[in-house]
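User: Continuing from earlier, I have the next pair ready.

Assistant: Great, send them over.

User: Here they are, in order.

Assistant: Folding the first of the pair now:
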Amino acid sequence: MRITVLAGGVGGARFALGLRDAAPDAAITVVANVGDDMWLAGVKVCPDLDSLMYALAGVVDGDRGWGRAGESERVAGELTAYGVGWPWFTLGDLDLGTHLARTALLREGRTLTEATAQLAARWPLGVTLLPVTDDEVPTHVVTDEGVIHFEEWWVRTRAQLPAQRFVQHGAERARISHAARAAIADADVVLIAPSNPVVSIGTILGLPGVRDALETAAAPVVGVAPIIGGRALRGMAATCLAVIGVEADAAAVAAHYGARSQGGILDGWLLAEEDEAGLAGLRSLGIRAEARPLLLTPGEPAAQVAREALALAAAIAG
């Protein structure tokens, strides 16, 4: 079985780990958001790709859910002393090694897809990790105080600075990568991870070619709700949803994505048992929705969520 997952960072990583456990014999491809990417202190930082790679490699900092375990920050201290970079966005020493390696590969003329493949080859990930595009599409946040990079809004202000809208700079000129398009076209199942619907999955969907690839895919497309009982599984998705006028509700997120039969992206949707009141409305929209336990607790619970998603996809496929 060939499974392709569209994912952001931390939530996507937890789901990918569960999926790898649930389908050990499947060929899994994770297509990652690159809207959080930035150049910082001269190096290319890809937060979502790195969170996915570190988690799948088993070297992630389990307490934070991102970054490397056993990290040190001596270089970051030196950068701060020189007045370089963002002092509130710490690059760990081990993490900086990843960014330096990626930057060297890019400056040699490799695409981000090629650079990611070389970095990932170091680890036994059990999946193929791809950026959704080789183009740069950094997410900016338009605020009352000006336009700032998404990571500054997210990390420095903790999303407390009121946002007017999110803008993926350069998205109109970007294109889905050939590898990401092929991963969607060749899949037996396409899954939408429970990642931020606005700045992770939303950024992926906003890239030219992605919606077309999903529309023409032969595989069923099944999403997993990132909202349980009105609360985001990770991060500040509720704040992001409010910016685009979508309720922080599992059914509302599915309706925002839309039914594939009606020009959206979803054939199926898993929401939590706490949110089963939304099932009837989603089914009326043409989305085959089911309620299941959705907490991505590492180990068997996360694997069971992945199994439920695969089972729903199998039922849709007939």
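And the other member of the pair:
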Amino acid sequence: MKFPNIGDIATTSVISIDINSTFNETMNKMLDNEHRNIIVIDTNDFYIMSIIDVLNVQAKHIDVNTALCDLHLSKIPVISKDKNILNTLEFLNNSTEYIAVVNDDNSFYGLVTHTDITSNIDPDTLMDNYRLQDFLKLGRRMKWVNRDEKISHLLKDMVNNFYDNVVVVEDLKPIGIFTTKDIMRLVKNKTDLDVNIEQHMSFPVDSIHKNSSVREALSFIKDRHYKRVIVVDDDGLLSGIITQKELISLTFSKWAILMKEYQDELSEINLMLQNKNIEYENIASTDALTGLYNRHKFTQLYLSSYTSMVQRHNDMSLILLDIDYFKKVNDVYGHNAGDKTLVQVSHTLLKILRNVDVVCRWGGEEFLIMLPTADLEHAISIAEKLRKAIEDLCIDIVGQVTASFGVSQVREGEDMQDVIDRADKALYLAKDSGRNCVKFEADI
């Protein structure tokens, strides 16, 4: 088995422009070629200007005759066209999805994108046993709006919060999607933006079920030439979005097995692969925003701790907490302030909890905590300490927030979900009791 060279898979039909060109010249070139991005060349360095950058410049009323070198464009990594496709792995954690491909003299040859990498993954090497629902980042911020959202308001939010797509929903069912491709069309046609998104969204929406395998998702993306896939549940409700980049990361473990089988070809990059394997294991176990464990990892740790509890006849409890009025934080102060709030609350939890305790971002503004060796009384005491510490936080812009808590003790012979359900009922009782308080299963 041979993995292709970068030059064999790179896209060479790419438009580019010199960094000393003006913004106006660049935008006109993008519109004339109907490209959402353009490569900006500065001797041995390469940058990219996207349609989002165009909107940002227009929003800030920057002179259209400003040179590109005076704008803060995103620099993209560089790789030789003679390198193996496996060498692109080191770039997959970059915020940009593009890699500049160069000739031996460092002149520009083309681009490698996530699409190119995805298209060259052999489907037979993918993980058939993993389902999308196991890897959806439950804490991942996903932008969705109703059909009557004004495009003019939405574009400002996309620029400020770096969204490149928005899902349009009705009763939580995806009915359309609005991406940079749609923005490019509106900019080119100088369309009135003070209209509902429903008029310019792409529809109908192609979606995939959350029980689909990684292999099925990759085939779905490759067949339709998409950058991302919208994931739904049994009722067609929006479950999340998973990108090509995430799917590539999920295939890494399988790639590592193949690499061992073809040692002669891959020996020179084994060290890099080992380091990347550790890195991807961490990514697969943690929430991208807070760094806390995700649901998948928490479930693994719970099962291990439960076995130990039964064998040693110990106690164990769970705490489920929810930040009060968190939607108001996002609506009033913006998603960046909401993210800062989640991060500071996460840090506060880690400071107070014991080393043996496990804290997980359960989803959105909810956190789930496992307390090995703690009975219900001890767990309530810890929950009260956490509640007070969150109440005492002073968060930039937002100020003070509070949280509500539900506590339950693990009983031998019951499923994890049963324990969580009891904690959840106690949490809702705390909310009904005025919030910013701790309730436990005996209160239910």
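Worth noting for the second one:
The CA atoms of residues 31 and 123 lie 36 Å apart. The longest helix spans residues 295-312.
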